[in-house]
Design a protein that fits this description.
26% of the residues are buried. The chain has 2 domains: 125 residues, Ribosomal Protein S5, domain 2, CATH 3.30.230; 59 residues, ACT domain (Alpha-Beta Plaits, 2-Layer Sandwich), CATH 3.30.70.260. The chain contains 5 helices and 11 strands, in the order βββαββαβαββαββαβ. With 190 residues, the chain is α+β, with helices and mostly antiparallel strands. The strands form 3 sheets. A 5-stranded antiparallel β-sheet has the order 2-3-6-4-5, sandwiched between helices. It comes from Arcobacter caeni. This is YigZ family protein. One of its GO terms (cellular component) is cytoplasm. Belongs to the IMPACT family.
Length: 190
């Protein structure tokens, strides 16, 4: 599974109708939808689809045809995302009607193609289930520990300097097992 970390957009034309697809992290969906409606007030449809993982690691999906014939736009867009194994991501497709009716099959193809086009240009990051762990060390060991975490591409969520230095880090269980073998014995792990 994979996801995007920023917004991407791409324009696709089909028989004089213009489809502008916006792919973004799911967390940005509401903000981008508002921006898109402000930037494209004369557009005919604002179709969307999204997939994200909830707190129970279940995939939640939703889509909207926004006035297009039922099942011709939102569902095909969602199907493209599911087929590409994209999660924690949303897509909004703005349609400007070009005067030629595409028919149900034409709409399904056009919306699917517009999502495929934006996926082609997007940069994805591989999804990993992350957990929060706490490391404690003496202040004198902090720079060495930070260097190791940077080398292992492990994100430091926070630092606490109250008694010993305490770092909250975010990583997978596999990454944690590898890290434990590289840590100094004086570093406490919890």
């Amino acid at each position: 599974m994979k996801f995007v970390q920023k917004e991407f957009s791409c324009t696709f034309e089909e028989r004089k109708s213009k489809f502008i697809a916006f792919l973004m992290p799911y967390s940005m969906f509401d903000v981008v939808m508002k921006k898109v409606k402000e930037e494209h007030p004369k557009a005919r449809h604002y179709v969307y689809a999204y997939r994200y993982l909830n707190e129970f690691d279940q995939i939640v999906e939703n889509s909207s045809d926004d006035g297009e014939p039922k099942g011709t736009s939102g569902k095909p867009s969602l199907a493209v995302m599911a087929g590409a194994e994209i999660i924690n991501t949303a897509v909004i497709i703005v349609r400007y009607f070009g005067g030629i009716k595409l028919g149900t099959g034409g709409l399904v193809r056009a919306y699917g193609d517009s999502v495929n086009e934006v996926i082609k240009i997007a940069l994805f990051k591989e999804y990993k289930k992350l957990e929060i762990k706490t490391l404690e060390c003496e202040y004198s060991e902090l720079s060495q520990l930070e260097y190791l975490l940077t080398q292992e591409d492990i994100n430091i969520k926070s630092k606490d300097f109250s008694t010993k230095v305490s770092l909250k880090i975010e990583l997978t269980n596999e990454e944690f097992e590898v890290l434990k073998t590289k840590l100094l014995r004086s570093i406490l792990v919890s």
